[in-house]
Design a protein that fits this description.
- It is built from 5 helices and 16 strands.
- By secondary structure, the protein is an alpha+beta fold.
- Strand 9 and strand 10 form a beta hairpin.
- Helix 3 runs antiparallel to helix 4 and helix 4 crosses helix 5.
- The protein is globular, with a radius of gyration of 22 Å.
């Protein structure tokens, strides 16, 4: 186990040869989005088993950029507007910003028991909006431009838990409505619109029926988890989003260690979607949980970020803050900012 962790640690830190490849804004959004999903899985055992869950992830500086766009376009002088926006793009040249807002609401349905089988279904609705914004002068050193990717997902469906003696199955089936756009941002377009993005522009929808499946085997010493999310069953519209519809696959293994009044869980894992390399999804970490107080601290290392998640967890309330700090910069000639997340949830009893 120690040799495996050491190997993964070295593998994470060493840069890989594909770092020089041309950057895709959608591919970059995908790896950051999947890391956000992985972080959420570290906070809660069963997704969609909550009355309320709001999770907001944002890169440092994004509020300032949005504010600067608004204030810089308030003047009625068109030439001054464009100059202000050119200065804004120049200020943030060769840097990226990421935003992910995830909201879930749901309620439990009646349990179903048949002989030794016990199903615990629930209804859920999930709303997720994400944005990736990068400013670059790599094509024109004198005229920086931005690339903006914006995506909106809505899911509505049924999820059920199916517990066994030493394992837990989770299955969800839902309709997913997806809208997205990829656009080029110039000083002229910012001066004209006065906004970095507009959700009203997401006017074309891709509708599909999809499912998630999760399996966890657990005993007193360790656990093993396999999951597949957003697996498409059938399409309901002809329109296809730019994000396409590739499933997210993941696996995680962990070991438990009880030390006085603290339970420590060390884990290694990997997630993958057909938008990034396999090594980018590797992560390792440890969760420390107080056996006397409702406090947890999770530390996680990917091949790009060090993540810390302090959490306060009661029976009917959960709150946590997440700090994702990059330890490798720049990434493909683009400076990566630290990210912050706030999460508030009211779980089922």
């Amino acid at each position: 186990m120690k040799k495996t962790i050491l190997f993964l640690l070295i593998f994470q830190i060493i840069p890989h040869s594909n770092a020089a490849a041309l950057r895709s804004e959608i591919d970059r959004y995908t790896i950051l989005r999947d890391r956000a999903i992985t972080d959420r899985q570290l906070k809660v055992k069963s997704p969609y088993q909550e009355f309320f869950n709001l999770d907001i992830v944002a890169s440092s500086g994004i509020r300032t950029i949005i504010s600067d766009v608004k204030s810089g376009t308030e003047t009625t002088n068109s030439a001054q507007k464009q100059l202000n926006m050119f200065q804004l793009l120049s200020k943030y040249v060769n840097s990226e910003r990421y935003v992910d807002v995830d909201f879930t609401t749901g309620f439990p349905l009646f349990d179903i028991k048949f002989k030794k089988h016990h199903f615990m279904p629930s209804f859920f609705f999930n709303y997720n909006v994400g944005m990736m914004f990068t400013v670059s002068n790599q094509e024109n050193a004198l005229n920086p431009t931005g690339q903006l990717y914006l995506k909106l997902d809505k899911k509505i469906g049924i999820q059920t838990l199916y517990p066994q003696k030493k394992s837990l199955y989770q299955f969800a089936i839902y309709q997913m409505t997806r809208s997205d756009l990829l656009s080029s941002i110039t000083s002229s377009s910012l001066a004209t619109s006065g906004k970095l993005f507009n959700l009203d522009d997401l006017n074309k929808e891709q509708k599909t029926i999809a499912f998630d499946i999760d399996y966890m085997k657990k005993n007193a010493r360790d656990f093993f988890q396999l999951a597949a999310k957003e697996v498409k069953l059938l399409s309901q519209t002809d329109h296809k989003s730019k994000y396409e519809h590739k499933p997210l696959l993941s696996a995680r293994y962990g070991r438990f260690l009880k030390w006085e009044k603290i339970m420590a869980t060390s884990f290694i894992g990997i997630h993958y979607r057909q938008k990034y390399s396999l090594h980018q999804g590797i992560f390792i970490g440890t969760k420390f949980e107080s056996l006397q107080h409702p406090l947890e601290l999770t530390a996680k290392l990917s091949n790009e970020f060090i993540t810390l998640i302090p959490q306060v967890k009661f029976k009917y309330l959960r709150f946590n803050y997440t700090l994702k700090n990059p330890y490798r910069n720049p990434q493909k000639d683009v400076w990566v900012s630290s990210m912050h997340s706030l999460n508030l949830a009211i779980p089922f009893p």
